[in-house]
Design a protein that fits this description.
Largest interface: A-B, 112 and 102 residues
Strand order of the largest sheet of chain B: 3-2-1-5-8
Order of helices and strands of chain A: HHHHHHHHEEHHHHHHHHHEE
Largest sheet of chain B: 5 strands, mixed
CATH superfamily of chain A: Cytochrome c oxidase-like, subunit I domain
Number of helices of chain A: 17
Structural class of chain A: mainly alpha
CATH class of chain A: Mainly Alpha
Shape of chain B: elongated
Largest sheet of chain A: 2 strands, antiparallel
Number of strands of chain B: 10
Helix content of chain A: 55-70%
Distance between the termini of chain A: 41 Å
Distance between the termini of chain B: 72 Å
Order of helices and strands of chain B: HHHEEEEEEEEEEH
Number of domains of chain A: 1
Radius of gyration of chain A: 24 Å
CATH class of the largest domain in chain B: Mainly Beta
Shape of chain A: globular
Radius of gyration of chain B: 26 Å
CATH topology of chain A: Cytochrome C Oxidase, Chain A
CATH architecture of chain A: Up-down Bundle
Number of strands of chain A: 4
Structural class of chain B: alpha+beta
Mean pLDDT of chain A: 93
Helix content of chain B: 25-40%
Chains: A mainly alpha (about 600), B alpha+beta (about 270), C mainly alpha (about 230)
Low-confidence stretches of chain A: 1-6, 590-594
Number of domains of chain B: 2
Strand content of chain A: under 5%
CATH topology of the largest domain in chain B: Immunoglobulin-like
Oligomer: heterotrimer
CATH superfamily of the largest domain in chain B: Cupredoxins -  blue copper proteins
Low-confidence stretches of chain B: none
Chain lengths: ~600, ~270, ~230
């Protein structure tokens, strides 16, 4: 038994339903809980998006059954303007926080990071369990805002002051709804900080014998870099939410200046700074979107390598690129504020790092493509989603060229161009990363294979469907279509309505296609083909666990010892064209072109 | 399946590019003096972005096509130049491209935001409030009277909170629900927010700027074509955000003078 | 007394067999291992996670207070309604209490450490100074509350003025984190009494406490300058 002074707090395999499945200290259970929560969240978020898209395409038409969701929000089943904004705010908040920050990072990271470093568990399992339950309670608080009398907040996931800070006078949902939103997000921040604590200490202190930092798989690096970002980003959002709550309930004026008149009533606040909220929010907000994508970069790299049967052209360059993205992400946040009234010189200052951040993103894509070159590319559902991610990341990244320039932002700010850009990188690329991870790691998590045919059908419909939905957003934006409108009444927007209808139909069909994934997920869980320990012939530590799914302490009696770099593919190994990290055999590379 | 995937990527890339190339959905024609620089910036960016987009999607597709058909005995090949070549490529190509865009774009931005309005620009004040824009012209005395937020009353149509009884400067101020400006004359637009954040966007004029409660912001521009255009709000301001707009009429100098006289009589 | 500080494991001299340089990736540069095959980078001895963990925690707390600080600076500059307030005198006394508690914590830490490692078996009450620290910490929190009462008596409430708003927010945030430190200290004392205290836990809790001390001094200076 390898004696290590760093070890997870001893916890024996639990007995009893509650300690096994509910309040579990096991990182694998916590990972699955996060995945389950993210799944519930994405379904809710997706349904909200359907309601939004239907309303945009056929604005005054009744949507059957909508009044059941909210009698105030949809009298006679016709969505009111405020209800559209409330649904929009909830859609975005749920998706950004409870799907994109949880699934790629908290779900897969919690499950696989300890295994990939060769540990029994994370060092602070109680904090880890708290991390999930605090996050989940944040989710419940957010969803509860649907059920208060005035409904959820309508201020967008960005909750700009003073709309968010003044109180009920500024609109429906702006009373209790805002407070619930802020409490939910504050809870979320605490949960994620606890998670970051575990991720960082696991990566730095829990690596097994022979596992140096450079021998970590790229997914582990991505989770590590993301958790460092989370540490600083969430720690800034939480104070901001606290100050917002105080402005709401305690009569302070952090964000509300004097002299504001709503409904002919002079508001009692004075002296606050509207832009202060924007600075605090976006200082968090920009790293947040990198928190949403960097795990995807790691997962996609990991899945691609296994399916290319060769390591990346340069492992270190990818790590440095992900690290640079993380560092630069703090210097660019002002690009959300180019026309916000902030000093125009600051706008120029922020635009340069924003343009420069293109470089590490390009490096990542070029390394991926350069690694596909000359490889032995295997096509299965996981690799299809990984390759699809590459295509989507290119598309979403390219639209960033426009938005990084303040002069062009004059035309494109707050239009559908922005919405198209962030949906391609987040709603599509990041989700593709989640799908790739799911199809790839499902066998290890549940001991069964997902159905490949259903998976491929799911992929095709989603890939084509997502482009049909989000590519047109860019055209709308170029034409000047403003975002966050519940209807298009302006003269110059009338010719664009047919395009909106096309998008809505594409969205509904693509949404339906996700049912195939859901069915596949649940059916395979119980009746899928039994999986071997290493169905993809992969090298990293998760594929060397003694059982599948892994036992409670991941590796059984003996922690593994690592002898190799993480991606020894294209070599002559005893098991095939690969050598696992835990295999003591020598690497013999007679397989290469000199 | 890999080949089909490759073809799909190429088809999607080309189909996506078609509306751009054919200018199917373009912004309205530029009616401003500074807009040319912005449009040029946009075209250059579109060209570079478009080429990058098409080249990388097609390359990805080609690689997927080629390297998914292999036999068990094939050897793994290294990309010529390896990672080093690709990193250099990223720095040189992308680096120069984006810096060029950034550097050349400074002028377009500076013209709008870093140059002061000329001394004889016509001052117009716009106030944004849930959910309408109101405009104020200073009248013959050339000065705007002070604003008193406590006097604002929609019911009395005192949108700006003017005290015409006590403030001499307010007496001749002209408040309107539409904005009219003379063509080819520079306008200095003073922006005031009544309640929450709003934004002023006229696509044809190539201007967009947020209203910030508590901050005195301004824009200046010159319209070059007579016509009627829409001013729309682009900062989420509440349930009426989608409907918050006003008309901007660009008129000849004579028509503008007449209009202003008519509006003054209505005060 | 059983020692709870584990011995560092012996670092085995492990030399891997010479590798055939693999050209299958990595830009042709072979493995990620150093050329000589020596794995000095490999941590066969890793630090206890709580010592890394505590820095993680302190980093995020620093970021939060940095956010509050920037909010204060921006808010003060954004309008003319800032009215300076004079800090309640008891704050200075509280500061002395907290500084004293850091001192007593260090004494306690050394005593407990010597006791646990068996160097000084004869200490009568090794945890006494930890109890004193706990008491001083509680006194500090009570003193902060007294400061709040004093402000209230002057008519300065949370929403009265931005300066008072920040006073309450910053002192409350600090006090809440300090209560967390008190909880940690209590946990240390209980574990010591049950003989299951790890040195790393004691060290991590002490770092946290000293950080709270330093943070308070920073906040005091900030409040004094700005408020």
């Amino acid at each position: 038994m390898h004696d290590m002074s760093a070890h997870a707090a001893e916890h024996h395999a639990p007995t009893g339903f509650i300690s096994k499945h509910v309040f579990s200290l096991d990182h694998k259970v916590i990972g699955k809980q996060y995945y389950g929560m993210a799944l519930a969240a994405v379904l809710i978020g997706m349904v909200l998006s359907w309601l939004m898209r239907i309303h945009l395409a056929w604005t005054n038409y009744p949507i059957p059954g909508l009044h059941l969701l909210s009698a105030n929000g949809a009298p006679g089943n016709v969505m009111t303007p405020e209800y559209y904004l409330q649904l929009m705010t909830m859609h975005a908040t749920i998706m950004v926080f409870f799907v994109l920050t949880t699934a790629p990072f908290a779900a897969f990271g919690n499950y696989f990071l300890p295994i990939q470093v060769g540990a029994e568990d994370m060092p602070f399992p109680h904090f880890n369990m708290m991390s999930f339950w605090v996050t989940f309670s944040g989710f419940l608080v957010l969803v509860s805002s649907f059920f208060v009398s005035d409904g959820p907040t309508l201020g967008g996931w960005t909750q700009y002051a003073p709309l968010s800070a003044i109180g009920p006078a500024s609109g429906p949902g702006q009373g209790t709804g805002v407070v619930l939103w802020a409490i939910s997000i504050a809870l979320f921040c605490v949960g994620q900080l606890l998670g970051s604590l575990n991720f960082i200490t696991t990566t730095l202190d829990m690596r097994t014998k022979g596992m140096s930092m450079w021998r970590l798989p790229l997914s582990a690096w991505a989770w590590f870099i993301t958790s460092v970002m989370g540490l600083t980003a969430f720690a800034v959002l939480m104070p901001a939410c606290i100050l917002l709550i105080l402005d709401h309930v305690a009569g302070t004026s952090f964000f509300v200046p004097s002299g504001l008149v709503l409904n002919d009533q002079l508001q009692p606040h004075s002296g606050g700074s509207t832009l202060l909220w924007q600075h605090l929010f976006w200082f968090f907000g920009h790293p947040e979107v990198y928190i949403a994508i960097v795990p995807g970069l790691g997962i996609v790299s990991h899945v691609l390598i296994t399916n290319m049967r060769r390591p990346m052209l340069s492992h270190r360059v990818l790590v440095y690129a992900m690290g640079s993205l993380a560092v630069l992400s703090y210097m660019v946040y002002g690009h959300h504020m180019f026309v916000s009234g902030m000093n125009p010189v600051s706008s120029l200052a922020f635009s340069f790092p924003t343009l420069i951040i293109t470089i590490p993103s390009t490096i990542v894509v070029l390394i991926w493509m350069g690694s596909i070159y000359g490889s032995k590319l295997r096509i299965n559902t996981a690799s299809l989603f990984a390759l699809g991610f590459v295509s989507m990341f290119i598309s979403g990244g390219v639209s960033g060229f426009f938005l990084a320039q303040p002069s062009i932002d004059i035309m494109l700010h707050a239009t559908y161009f922005v919405v198209g850009h962030f949906h391609l990188v987040m709603a599509v690329a990041a989700i593709f990363g989640i799908f790739a991870g799911t199809y790839f790691w499902f066998p290890k998590m549940f001991g069964r294979m997902m159905d490949e045919t259903l998976g491929k059908v799911h992929f095709w419909l989603t890939f084509v469907g997502a482009y049909c939905i989000f590519m047109p957003f860019h055209y709308l934006g170029i034409a000047g279509n403003v975002r966050r409108y519940q209807a298009f009444v302006d003269d110059y927007l009338q010719p664009l309505i047919p395009l909106h209808r096309f998008i809505t139909i594409a969205a509904l069909l693509t949404g339906l296609a996700q049912l195939i994934f859901l069915y596949n997920l649940f059916h395979s869980r119980f009746w899928g083909k039994p999986a071997t320990d290493n169905p993809w012939e992969a090298t990293s530590l998760e594929w060397s666990t003694p059982t599948t799914p892994p036992p409670h302490n991941n590796f059984g009696d003996k922690l593994p010892e690592v002898f190799h770099d993480p991606y020894q593919y294209g070599v002559q190994g005893s098991t095939g064209d690969y050598v696992m990290q835990t295999s003591p055999e020598k690497v013999n590379s007679a397989n290469d072109e000199a | 399946m890999a080949k089909f995937f490759a073809v799909t990527i190429i088809v999607i890339a080309i189909v996506s590019a078609i509306p751009i190339i054919r200018h199917t959905w373009d912004p309205p024609a530029d009616i401003s003096t500074h807009g040319g620089m912005i449009d040029e910036q946009m075209s250059e960016t579109m060209a570079e972005a478009g080429i990058s987009f098409l080249a990388s999607q097609i390359l990805l597709a080609l690689f997927i096509w080629k390297f998914s058909s292999w036999r068990p005995g094939d050897k793994i090949k290294t990309f010529p130049g390896g990672a080093k070549a690709l990193v250099w490529a990223a720095f040189l190509l992308v680096g120069t491209e984006v810096l060029a865009l950034g550097v050349f774009g400074v002028k377009a931005w500076a013209t709008v935001y870093l140059t002061p309005p000329s001394a004889n620009a016509i001052p117009v004040q716009v106030q944004a409030g849930q959910f309408a824009f109101y405009f104020r012209y200073p009248g013959p005395d050339g000065t705007f009277g002070p604003l008193h937020p406590d006097l604002i009353s929609e019911a009395n149509e005192n949108f700006f909170g003017l005290d015409t009884t006590h403030d001499a400067d307010s007496k001749d101020d002209i408040v309107t629900a539409e904005m009219a400006i003379p063509v080819n004359k520079e306008i200095h637009l003073l922006m005031h927010a009544k309640d929450v954040g709003h934004s002023f966007y006229v696509p044809a004029l190539r201007v967009q700027q947020d209203f910030v409660p508590g901050l005195d912001l301004s824009l200046h521009f010159t319209a070059t074509q007579i016509g009627k255009y829409e001013i729309v709000c682009t900062q989420l301001c509440g349930l009426g955000h989608y409907n918050m707009k006003a008309y901007l009429e660009v008129m000849s100098q004579d028509d503008f003078d007449n209009w202003l006289k008519k509006e003054a009589a209505l005060q | 007394m059983a020692t709870t500080v584990p011995e560092p494991p012996k670092i085995e001299e492990r030399r891997d067999p010479p590798r055939v340089i693999s050209d299958s990736g990595n830009g042709g540069r072979g493995t990620l291992a150093p050329a000589g095959g020596d794995f000095r980078a490999v941590k066969d001895y890793a630090p206890p996670p709580s010592s890394t963990g505590i820095w993680v925690v302190l980093a995020s707390i620093t970021m939060s207070f940095a956010a509050f600080t920037s909010a204060l600076i921006v808010r003060q500059g954004s309008s003319l309604d800032w009215r300076h307030l004079s800090l309640p005198r008891i704050l200075y006394f509280n500061t002395l209490l907290l500084l004293a508690s850091s001192f007593t914590l260090e004494v306690g830490r050394r005593q407990v450490g010597s006791y646990m490692s068996g160097r000084k078996a004869g200490i009568a009450h090794p945890a006494r100074w930890l109890y004193i620290t706990l008491f001083l910490g509680l006194l500090f929190v009570a003193g902060q509350y007294a400061a709040w009462l004093q402000l209230r008596a002057e008519g300065l409430f949370l929403a009265t003025n931005p300066s008072s708003s920040f006073f309450y927010v910053l002192t409350a945030a600090h006090a809440l984190h300090l209560l967390g430190g008190l909880g940690g200290l209590t946990r240390v004392i209980r574990r010591f009494n049950r003989s299951i205290l790890r040195k790393s836990t004691l060290d991590a809790t002490s770092h946290y406490w000293h950080f709270m001390d330093a943070l308070w001094v920073y906040l005091l200076v900030l409040l004094w300058i700005k408020l």
